[in-house]
Design brief:
The protein is of the alpha+beta class. Helix content is about 20%, strand content about 30%. The strands form 5 sheets. Strands 1, 2, 3, 4, 5, 6, 7 and 8 form an 8-stranded antiparallel beta sheet that branches. Strands 14, 15, 16, 18, 19, 20 and 24 form a 7-stranded mixed beta sheet that branches. A hairpin with a 3-residue loop joins strand 7 and strand 8. The protein is globular. It starts with 10 loop residues before the first helix and ends with a strand.
Length: about 575
């Protein structure tokens, strides 16, 4: 799935995008637009001699309208003049029929319209669209403050720099593309410590704008000054302000954008939107972006240990005699809170019960507006009978340069990174047989705390059995790698609890099957695909038989299971919290 047209694969779009970019229109915008609000207005200039606004071209009226390109980008058309919304710096409604705006490379322009109600509606829509390029003014200000405070701390910059996968692959992507960086003018968005700016200089860049809004900008200046001998002839220009507020600090367009705008599940912190704003405002037509593509992967998983851990976290609130008080009325809320937390840790690949699906986001063409609501439909054929406990996710970042292509992957079977992987839990798991298909949708809704709310709707295809996860808060994860001794640790990765890295899937299964019947598994042993075999009397609650009940994630838990009469696999191996049972 590609959001927005892809000029790299469609020559016609590439030509249109190049032409549009020359007119100050965002790269990826084509000549095909869809009309939206419009008014007839008179363009005005301010006369310094007369100290008033005067008509720009006699008494002629022009159409002022908002249009949407086939790529989804919004443009402002003033007669024949196309203006990218990223170039509209200021809008002031002076009266119901008159407004002024400051446009880059044009200056102040006035608009006068006789139809006051239509003009007010038009200007309101224009102001709303322009707000996409003023992100930090839209956000909750306490969130913005904590965001910049976090990235100002060197300890947090150090954590990212010491992610060897991240840092080494970014450097490889940059220095392996001398055609793109040699003698180039580069902009580093969210420079942090300045490491990507310095890599760009080492790759031969002539000038690098290091844009960093937090006080970490002081560190960039200090490191640039003390490493001149290591940075070639490059000029490092540090800009300490949000990208969206830059005015005259950048001289013209840049040749290359570099950034590490990636959060958990690719989009947390919504930094990618600043990256896109930089593309629209500062990247020359045909310029390069590093990275230029992000791909989001999702797959269903089965992990009884994880589900039981979350389920049991409401245990405190089950206290019926806490200093003379019964706390059990708070149990439902406690349970809901824990199941709306994403789980960030490493995922045992053996927990995945279907092939993953991929959604591609082309940073050269995707629009800010299209990232406000992201919807990913899915159909997952299930490989094995199991309880599906939710959806797992990870991402790749692609650096497709002129000389070389580099891929940074955070997949479960790749070396670990500081992003880990992520899982979204279903409070009520789905019992699925091999060959059945899970269908549904994962929806992401942007919020004003620089993140997203996640909603998952999932059901077994051809049945009415479904389970949903509503309003998972992507900004409020549990970093389980540091909180649970049961968290999986991939080979070659040090555990936070001093345990050895996990064995292979085959070894883990062999260890699990060697456990005497009825004896609990040790917490540090990875749990794989805990299936449930439904009987002919299966219901939508815990199974009736004692053995099935023991295999459930926890006492009293609900599980959506196979409907009566549906075929099921007789060859089942029960691997659950209570132990291992042969079917």
């Amino acid at each position: 799935q590609v959001l927005g047209p892809n000029p790299s694969t469609d020559p016609a779009l590439a030509i249109e995008a190049s032409s549009a970019g020359a007119m100050g229109v965002p790269p990826g915008t084509t000549g095909t637009e869809t009309s939206e609000p419009e008014v007839l207005a008179q363009l005005c200039n301010f006369s310094a001699g007369e100290l008033k606004w005067v008509p720009k071209a006699g008494d002629a009226l022009v159409k002022a309208r908002l249009v949407r390109s086939s790529g989804g980008a919004r443009l402002l058309l003033l007669g024949e003049q196309k203006v990218a919304l990223a170039d509209v710096r200021m809008i002031t409604l002076l009266s119901p029929g008159f407004s002024t705006m400051q446009i880059k490379d044009v200056g102040h322009t006035g608009l006068r319209c006789e139809d006051e109600s239509a003009f007010t509606a038009f200007m309101n829509e224009l102001t709303k669209c322009k707000a996409d390029y003023e992100r930090f003014e839209q956000y909750d200000q306490s969130s913005v403050q904590s965001y910049f405070q976090y990235y100002a701390k060197l300890s947090n910059q150090q954590n990212m720099m010491q992610d060897a996968v991240r840092t080494s692959l970014y450097r490889q992507a940059i220095v392996s593309n001398p055609t793109d960086f040699g003698g180039a003018k580069v902009m580093d968005i969210g420079a942090g410590s300045g490491i990507l700016s310095f890599f760009s200089a080492q790759a031969g860049a002539a000038k690098v704008y290091a844009v960093e809004a937090s006080s970490a900008a002081d560190t960039v200046k200090a490191l640039a000054a003390s490493n001149k001998q290591n940075l070639g002839e490059a000029e490092i220009c540090v800009i300490q302000k949000p990208l969206e507020t830059i005015t005259d600090e950048v001289d013209g367009k840049v040749d290359v954008l570099v950034s590490e705008p990636i959060g958990t599940f690719l989009f947390n912190e919504r930094m990618i939107e600043s990256y896109i704003c930089a593309r629209d405002r500062f990247l020359k037509p045909g310029g390069k972006m590093f990275p230029n593509v992000g791909t989001l992967m999702i797959a269903p998983f089965s992990d009884a240990v994880l589900h039981a851990e979350q389920q049991s976290k409401n245990a405190f609130w089950k206290n019926t005699s806490f200093y003379g008080l019964d706390l059990s009325a708070a149990v439902p809320r406690s349970t809901k809170e824990h199941f709306t937390q994403p789980i960030v840790d490493y995922i045992d690949p053996g927990c995945l019960v279907s092939e993953y699906i991929t959604t591609r986001f082309d940073f050269a063409t995707v629009t800010v507006e299209s990232l406000q609501n992201i919807e990913i439909p899915f159909n997952f054929p299930i490989h094995q009978p199991c309880l599906v406990h939710g959806i797992a996710g990870w991402f790749d970042a692609l650096f497709e340069g002129t000389d070389a292509t580099v891929v940074l992957s955070t997949a479960p079977w790749c070396p670990g990174t500081h992003w880990y992987q992520i899982r979204f839990l279903l409070e009520t798991p789905l019992a699925v047989n091999a060959g059945q298909v899970l269908e549904g949708t994962l929806k992401m809704e942007a919020n004003n705390v620089q993140s997203y709310f996640i909603r998952i709707n999932m059901r077994i295809k051809g049945t009415n059995i479904e389970s949903n996860a509503q309003c998972i808060d992507l900004k409020d994860p549990e970093y389980r790698f540091f909180t649970s001794a049961s968290s999986y640790c991939p080979p070659g990765t040090a555990s936070a609890f001093g345990q050895p890295a996990a064995s292979t899937l085959e070894q883990a299964l062999a260890e699990a099957q060697a456990v005497p019947q009825g004896q609990p598994l040790q917490p540090q042993q990875p749990q794989h695909a805990p299936p449930v075999k439904p009987s002919g009397d299966a219901k939508e609650t815990a199974a009736d038989t004692p053995r099935a009940a023991e295999a459930q994630p926890g006492p009293g838990n609900r599980v959506a299971v196979q409907v009566p009469g549906e075929p099921h696999d007789e060859r089942l191996l029960r691997i659950g919290l209570a132990g291992v049972f042969k079917a």
